[in-house]
Amino acid sequence: MRTSLTPHAAAALVPDGATIMIGGFMGVGTPNRVIDALVARGARNLTVIANDTARPGVGIGKLIGAGAVSRAIVSHIGTNPETQRAMLAGEIAVDLVPQGTLAERVRAGGSGLGGVLTTTGLGTVVAEGKTVVRVGGREFLVEEALRAAVALVAARSADYAGNLVYTLTARNFNPLMAMAAETVIAEPNEIVPVGVLAPDVIHTPGVLVDHLVERPLPL
C-alpha cells in the first residue's frame, strides 16, 4: 500500500539541482499541486524534461516564471513567451527535441536502452555534434536515452497500491515518464480502494509508483 503525501511533502523530495520529468501536454495531465508546492518552497536550478513549458502561470509555466528552471528539454516553447525571453537572455538553457524523438528517448530510458536511432533531424541543426550511424544502407542519428531522478505525473485515479489511470490527453508522456525515473510521485484526482480499478483499465502499474499525493479536498 502506498501512503499519501501532502503536496509540500512531495515537493520536499525534489532537491534543488535535480533532473525531473513532468508529464502532460500544455498543462493537461500535469501535477499542478506539486508544482505549486515547488514554487512555494523556492525550488531552484531544476532541469525539466517535458513535452512543453505550457503558458505563463499554467503548469510548468509557473516554474519558469518563478525562476526554478535552469534547463528545459522539451519539444517546443512557442506557447510560453517567458521561456523564450529567459532563453534569449541566457537565463535558461533550452534543448528543443522533436516530439516523437523526445517520447522515444524517454521510452528508451525506461526500457534500459542506451538510446534510439532516428532519421528525424538529419541534415539540420538537430544533428550537430551527434553520432550518425548507417544501418541497412540508411543513415540515422543516435539520440541518447533520457532518465530523471524524479518523475512527477498526474492521474485521474489511483488506488492505494499505486495503480494509475489517466484520461485522454492527460495520458501524454505520463506512462513513459513513470518508467524512466528513480522516484515516481503521482498526483491523482482521486484515490480509491484496491480492486475498484479494473486491471484492464490501468495504464501505469503500482510497482512503478513510489509516492501518491493526497487527493484534493472537495470544493
TrEMBL record:
The protein's GO terms of the molecular function aspect are: CoA-transferase activity
UniProt KW Protein transport keyword: no
UniProt keywords (A-Z) are: Transferase
Any matching Pfam family: CoA_trans
Q: Which InterPro entries match?
A: 3-oxoacid_CoA-transf_A, CoA_trans_fam_I, CoA_transf_BS, NagB/RpiA_transferase-like
Instruction: Write down the NCBIfam families for this protein, in alphabetical order.
Output: pcaI_scoA_fam
Q: Which family does it belong to?
A: Belongs to the 3-oxoacid CoA-transferase subunit A family.
Indicate what this protein is called per its UniProt record: 3-oxoacid CoA-transferase subunit A
Species: Methylobacterium mesophilicum SR1.6/6
Lineage, opening ranks = Bacteria, Pseudomonadati, Pseudomonadota, Alphaproteobacteria, Hyphomicrobiales
